[in-house]
Every structure is written in structure tokens, then in C-alpha cells.
Design brief:
Blueprint (H helix, E strand, L loop, with lengths): L7 E2 L9 E6 L13 H5 L5 E4 L5 E2 L7 E2 L8 H26 L6 E6 L1 H10 L8 E5 L9 H4 L6 E6 L8 H12 L4 E6 L8 H15 L3
Parallel strand pairs: 2-3, 2-6, 6-7, 7-8, 8-9
Antiparallel strand pairs: 1-3, 4-5
């Protein structure tokens, strides 16, 4: 179905998938890092299948794991180049999965963590039609200064971040929310108190509610 492989979970309610939740992992991880989210969230969106593709490249900063693009050079220019380059593989993966399931853009939710959030935010607003929504944990909006001129769709977003994150500071959330709002994107945000670079129980709960709202519970 797609060149990107990774774990999948069928709809919790059984039957054919009527929605798709794509889980995009962070640097040095793989799809197994996020596929467990299908268990709590599947009860809220029982008609959705969950898939967590492994990023296309082996991680160049760790002995195991995958990366969407290299972060060995974290200059804004190189990070922006990396996101744009990896977008081709992600867009092709999305297209293949939607076609195979017989679903449309409105049936898709993108969920990212860290580098996966960078990818989700880059791709979702540049596709020809809006997906149902974008849920981003502990990430940032890369190249946001160019978004207004490149914007093609405005799916709603929920951004969640820990205020003790020492890898991607929480200020990245506020910057992303401001830039998305300036592009008239419906954006919500939540800060998990005392949480570092990870997903806290409150973030899990808010994220599940968001998916239920944008994908529907029935």
C-alpha cells in the first residue's frame, strides 16, 4: 500500500475503516513508539484505523531508530530544507493510504510527536485539500514565516507541549500558534505543567477529545 512500513491497528469497533489516524514519530524512534496510542484513542474514534509509519531514513544520531530528516545541523535553513525534502515521502504515503482505504482528505487526522509534529504541520497546510485535523505534541512549526504564501488548506490544529521540555522549549508552541492564527487557521493549545519532552495523561486526554471532535465518534 505504501513505501513506508510500520505498525497498524484496525478500527476498534470492527469493520472497514471510515477514518485514518496517521501517527508520526520523533527523531530516533519508529512507529512502535506511538502505535500504543491506538488503544485509548480507538475507544473514542472506533471507526478509525491507526497507522504509525517508520520514517524513511535511519537515524544518523543514534545506533537505532529512524528519522524524517537529519537534525545533525539544526540551523533554521537546514531544518527547513530537511522538512521540505521529507514531505515528498510523507505526501506519497498519505496519498497511497487514502486511496487504498477509499477515504478522502476529510477522513484523515495527522498526529505528530516532536519531529513528527514538524512534518505534520508542514504537510497538512500545503496539501490541496484540508484533512480533518492536526494534533501536534512537543514540536514546532518550521519555516512558519513562509506559510502564508504557501498555504493551501486550513485544517484545525491542537498543539500540546510540556512546560519543562528541555529539547523543544514550550515557546515553540506559542510561536506556532501565533503563526497559524495569523494564517486564519483554527488553532487550540494546551500546556502540560511539569512535563518534559513527552505526552502526559492530560495531553493524552485532550488529544483524544480533539480526534473525536474532528473525526466524529460514530
Amino acid at each position: 500500500m505504501s513505501a513506508l512500513k510500520g505498525p497498524e491497528r484496525p478500527p476498534a469497533g470492527g469493520g472497514a475503516a471510515r477514518k485514518l489516524v496517521l501517527l508520526l514519530h520523533g527523531l530516533g524512534a519508529d512507529g512502535n513508539d506511538l502505535i500504543g496510542l491506538a488503544e485509548p484513542w480507538g475507544r473514542l474514534v472506533p471507526h478509525a484505523c491507526f497507522t504509525a509509519p517508520d520514517a524513511p531514513e535511519p537515524c544518523d544520531m543514534a545506533p537505532t531508530g529512524r528519522q524524517w530528516f537529519s537534525l545533525s545541523d539544526r540551523s533554521p535553513e537546514r531544518v527547513a530544507e530537511g522538512v521540505a525534502s521529507a514531505a515528498d515521502a510523507l505526501n506519497a504515503d498519505i496519498d497511497a493510504r487514502l486511496q487504498a482505504l477509499g477515504l478522502g482528505e476529510q477522513d484523515l487526522a495527522l498526529v505528530g510527536f516532536s519531529q513528527g509534529t514538524m512534518m505534520s504541520l508542514h504537510v497538512a497546510y500545503r496539501r490541496a485539500a484540508p484533512c480533518a485535523g492536526v494534533l501536534g505534541f512537543s514540536g514546532r512549526l518550521v519555516g512558519g514565516e513562509h506559510l502564508k504564501s504557501e498555504l493551501r488548506a486550513r485544517p484545525p490544529a491542537l498543539l500540546i507541549h510540556g512546560d519543562a521540555d528541555d529539547l523543544v522549549p514550550v515557546g515553540a508552541l506559542f510561536e506556532a500558534a501565533t503563526l497559524l492564527g495569523a494564517c486564519e487557521v483554527p488553532v487550540q493549545w494546551h500546556v502540560s505543567r511539569g512535563i518534559g519532552h513527552g505526552i502526559a495523561p492530560d495531553g493524552l486526554e485532550f488529544g483524544g477529545r480533539f480526534l473525536r471532535d474532528v473525526l466524529g465518534a460514530g
